[in-house]
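#data-curation
PF: Archiving a pair of folding outputs for the training set. Convention for this channel: one message per protein, sequence first, structure tokens after, nothing in between. First:
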Amino acid sequence: MPFNTNARNKIRETLVRTLQFSKFTWFGDYFHESPLSCNGVFAYFSSQSSRNPIFSSAVNPKVCGQILERDDVEYGYGRSREEGFKDCRISISDGPSVKSGEKYKFDVLDEFLESENGGESVEDSEIELRVFDSFNRNRKESEVSGSIEGDEDELRHPLVKEVCRLIDFRAAWTPKLEGELRHLLRSLKPRKVCAVLRAQSDERVALKFFYWADRQWRYKHDPIVYYAMLQVLSKTKLCQGAKRVLHLMVRRKIECRPEDFGCVMVSFSRAGHVAKAMQTLTLMQKAGVELDLSICNTAIYVLVKDHKLEKALRFLERMQVVGIKPEVITYNCLIKGYCDVHQLENAMELIAEMPFKGCFPDKVSYYTVMGFLCKEKRIDEVRELMEKMLKDSKLLPDQVSYNTLIHMLSKYLHADEALGFLREAEERGFFIDKVGYSAVINCFCQKGRMDRAKELVNEMISKGCTPDVVTYTAVVNGFCQAGEVDHAKKLLQQMYKHGCKPNCVSYTALLNGLCKSGNSTEAREMMNTSEEEWWTPNAVTYSVVMHGFRREGKLSEACDMVREMIRKGFFPTPVEINLLIQSICREGRASEAKKLMEECLNKGCAVNVVNFTTVIHGFCQKDDLEAALSVLDDMYLSNKHPDAVTYTTVIDALGRKGRIDEATELTKKMLHSGLLPTPVTYRSLIHHFCHQGRVDDLLKLLEKMLPRQDCRSVNNQIIEKLCSSGHVDQAYKLLGKVLRTASRIDANTCHVLMESYLKEGNSLGSYKVACRMFNRNLIPDLKLCEKVSKKLMLEGKLDEADKLMLRFVERGHLSIKCQPAVFG
């Protein structure tokens, strides 16, 4: 039955009205149709479906509920109520029904996932008790389908490659390209979507793609996509993203596994939020997901990584009490924990106890301890441990064992010891491949022993183990570090004779050597001929040559390298940009530094607040204050908020120019922004205010600053600065604030004030300061007080001179016999 005319007109009016609010956003920053329009249409369909059965058959309320639930919960579109769309939201009850027994679990987990703090604040020990107290011993293991292990075939699929290519060009996105990506998305099977997520080098891009795809019409994430996204995020510090993905899974009734909560735990742990990671266990059980061995292993790993070994051991005990039997992975985590806190004996005891607990150690258990011994250069104990591994655990040292030892010793630059194990492995009939040889050769090169490295390369060739590009590159880099660039060039040419083609890393190592030896121009020429040599410079190559020019003072050439670097699609880091603009500012060319920074910013480089501050400081050094203030305004326009260092730089420049009122206003603006003043901020303000004698204005400003960031020595600095600028009487008025704490620093300040009075010929003022120090149980410097006493005597003030020295006698710091001239 078709819609009637009135219904069609209402739908058309609704679409026209809501499309006026449409806008495009790509991954939150670019193109995407606003969901407000969809909310309006679904609200209309929902209202009609309650009265007309035709609408209920045309539009599934469950689907609508899921879509609106998705938008309102995750992407902040619930605010449409405040924008006049109060009737646009469909109640969650229109979606899949929730059983009464599930409501508590759902709400409790929401409370944790929606909070910024990650739930209630409790001690880790209490969390352990709660977790195991509610453990169900008679639980049945649930099986969740959908393995998401990586598949190389999926990564090489043409559709996956095309989607990744479109994502890489997101900076130049258009609605047409988004339409192509949307079309490809609907053609992708769930495993291919997982492959796209895993293929992203930047996990933040993967998360944005996950959100963008989730908002598309006629597309719904398969559960394995959620699992894959959580696994990707578990390798990062993006704990808030992992928490939101888990939130979506719970809200959409997607079955959560213990591994999924484990991914969130690891992400919280990487971000340094161990307490929140452990709270995930309690919330997992409240959501109806039972503990298992894998999540317990994750909890122990998190505790060990945060150096909370005692809590990890207590967790292990509780596991065993409730019937969760640990495995070798569990014990290996604890062994690693013992090694991290340098408790090697306890690690060895744990290995010895494992067989009695029904779990035999594996080679990883021993390798963990061996790695610690290699780091400590306790090679004899490494050999003893290998014998113990054979005798006690019947684990024969094999090729993997020797390769592991060789790489661990090479990592910690124990070249001779690594070579010794290499020889031993070959004597026992094991074949050490070029990877093992390359590790030892690189170790010798790092220590500057190039003759030994060359001998090993020749030995490899004689044994039929052909060196690869990694081996030769290590030697080339070694020659360059030793300053023998000519030998590095010859070796690079010999690589072709041995059938090994140098790659970008090989040439970059040589260019780095040339730049460090002051031959950046030659390095630049070699880059220009890269196409002839069949290699392509990368971002590191450009950075090496750019810094070479910078160190040589060829700043124009360095700027050209940055511009070429950006044209090639390589963006310098903020640190690299700052080093260059800092060098330019030191040459007094702050305008050129500003121009370069603006070019980098306009081209999409990650310019940060430090770069702006460097340019501002460059202008301040030239006393071009107007230009510095202009750059400060540009920061706000570029959405780069100044920090305390930025404000302090400008405040100091204003003070030098005598523009104290402007410096005061800028200080208040800094405080209003929530920034804390630094000690440098205090010193700068004190210096300039005291220099102009505006002590009262300074004290008023400090009353606003000190509650934000207390600086105990601020009054000491004021007094000392007033003394140096000749305002001794004003300094004396502040003496009471200094003597409140009566510390050693206060005594030094009082001595400065006393010496200032003596220089002015006011010995009585010095006497008063000394008396106030005695009253606060501070002992003045005896030699300084002797000078004051003599001055008082010369001025005929004998009573004050006697009283001052008697104070020392009363406290046992001076005998009467020692001062006959005074007391005679």
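PF: Second:
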Amino acid sequence: MAIAMASLSTTAAAQSADGNAVEYVDVVGQAVQIDKALGEQRRSDRIQSVVHADGIGQLPDDNAAEALQRIPGISVERDQGEGRFVSIRGIAPDLNSVTINGTLVPAPESDRRAVALDVLPSELIQSITAVKTLTPDMDANSLGGTVEVHSLSAFDHEGLFRTLSVEGSHDDNSGENSPKISGAISNRFDIGGGRKNFGVAAAVSWQKRKFGSDNVETGGAWDLSDPAVPRLEKMEQRRYDITRERLGVGLNFDYQPDDTSNYYLRTLFSRYSDTEQRNAAGVEFADPLAPGETGDAEGYRELKSRKETQQIQSYVLGGERSFGLWTASGQLGYSKASEKLPFGIAGAGFEGNDDFSNAGYTNPGRPRLNIGAGFYDPTEFTLDEVEAESQKTTDTEKSIRLDLARQYDWNGHASEIKFGGKISRRDKRNELNVWKYDDFGSAPTGLDSYAGSNARYGLGYFGPGISDAAIRRLLATLDHNAAYDEEESRINDFRMSEDINAAYVMNTIDIDKWRVIAGLRYEGTRFSASGTGINDGEFEENNSIKRYHHWLPGLHGSYQLNDRTKLRAAWTNTVVRPTFEALAPGFVIDDDEASFGNPDLDPLKARNIDVGIEHYMGRAGVLSAFVFHKDIKNFVYQTDLAGNGRWADFSEAVTFANGNEAKLYGLELAYSQKLDWLPSPWNGLLVGANATFSHSRAEIEGLGTRRTIDLPNQSSKVGNLMLGWENRKFSTRLSANYKSSYLAEVAAVDDANRDRHADSQLFVDFSASYYITPKIKLSFMAQNLTNESYYIYSGRRDLNAQYEKYGPTYKISLTLTDF
């Protein structure tokens, strides 16, 4: 069910008392979009939820991730307060898949499979579907579900359509104002003797957003020798100043020569650049301190400054044709994701000249540093080392798919047999170069030569930041060849390839009120990885090839209780490959310490059961409930193998391993409805609510012990509440999104007290739209009204690992449609 809505303008004509037509604006956007989404959900053979764009191709939120968080079972991982990665039913984003117009979207980042959906501007998207039960004709590469992104088409409109939108936003934390502009145009043409049978649609969106955040973190550096009085070993204040620029372009062609065939070309290009400057000011206490205690401390200051640019390209050529009882469809797909980091400052570190006395802190959950004035004096710090790096990652996927379906009659029951196959070739490469400078010759090394203005920091006093320009001027005078770090560079370079051949057969049959789909999918995978490791100072090549085969049966059923009520059930089997970080071939073995990836990991397999009921009622109305259960084998976790096997004499051997089994089960509830039977003005009310309750259990082992944990990133409670109102000219929405705390990072198997947990979050947003004329809409949006923070704690909720605060954002926009 979609309860994320946008506003839609429709123009109608009413008769005045004298018989003349009177033009007015009828704003029915929220109800219309819920109806569209529920219609797709109701007709689907799969259990799914949909978010639909409005008539001008705009999602109700800034990006795909934030729009999806409004539907049942979905939560998002945020970066600097912006929704980025989507979690489905508590399953981590890396274990779900994303497709654009039917082709897989690869991941720009070197270590992840998850696709950051904030890379995709909302203006390029017509609808997004979260598929929770996969049919055999779908790729089986997701545990939680598959996010299907559909871009706009000229056949979404009757004829010529144009829209233009301009927006300004204000970030409360940084005080910065940011622009955005977007537009779309589409039309249908007569070709080959047909009428309105060829369509062209184009859209473009550009945004440059400046904002910031304040952070204080300990990294979990707590001395717990006396559990009653935890003592802090070190802490760090951070100020982030960020500029994110997004450019998206879509150009789509559709050709429907007759009622039996259609052909299409879908293209999408998205570029996302993230410019970040992070100033840090930290201390390491000579002796661990409790809140309010004081002592000596070493101080330091550090700058990180870099610009990352991610690009996603997607090209899909396909078509479908029916001839008699047969239907044939096919698709060629090419997608490429990349991330480029030109020469960036990974860390410019300044050490304090002497220890600072009488240093301490208050509040272990949000530590506030108490220290003498010398800590804020640039002359008290000397440049120690500058680390710089450049990186390029590419992830390319090529695929070809062919499907054949034939309708037939089986004992008077309508049936369809469908079969087909897909060939997919994926190639991921990473190249990293690292430089470490610690010889600065005759250049000045005092912080006073590189200090900038005082940092804008909302969690206390920070003092002067470090100038990016000054550090870069210094590096320009140094010997880059002498500073090149071959070890760090080579061990992070890799190439990984996944070749997947798939085939399936499935049969659909309607028997009275039953609709049943039974099928079988086969996926054969060849995985190869090549990279370099270092063993006590000597480089070693590491090449690995792994093959595996999976037969994945599936059964879907739905029963129409009445015209408005449907029962659904599904038994599905899926398989997911581990993250590229876990599979990385690089390794470091240094005396009795080792860290390495594991290219020999087995893929994760899941057996899934879903059962539920949907009751549709009135306009934009649904009441639904689903239970689900997932039995997951070979889940992947980070562990320490020291003391076992080859690593028996090692003090540390950190890698990734397969766990035996994990279980996840839960309940999804959803409700939405427009209350149009109420008297005016209450008949403009819309209400929506959904909640997902889940529980997980997994076992990990290592260091001669084992213990039970929750699945990482799995929130046991996720919910949304929406209250909207609309009439013919005005529309408004107040929405709240909540997710409970979850396990963010697993510590050593024998040290559960140092597991890191993310605290619960509640985000509240408000939006309103007003039609000045039938073609001009004015909109206002306020995001994060609760000024929600991101808080990670170490073991106990009162012990900080990371606290970050963003502040609210306000936006105002003007949209012209069919001008």
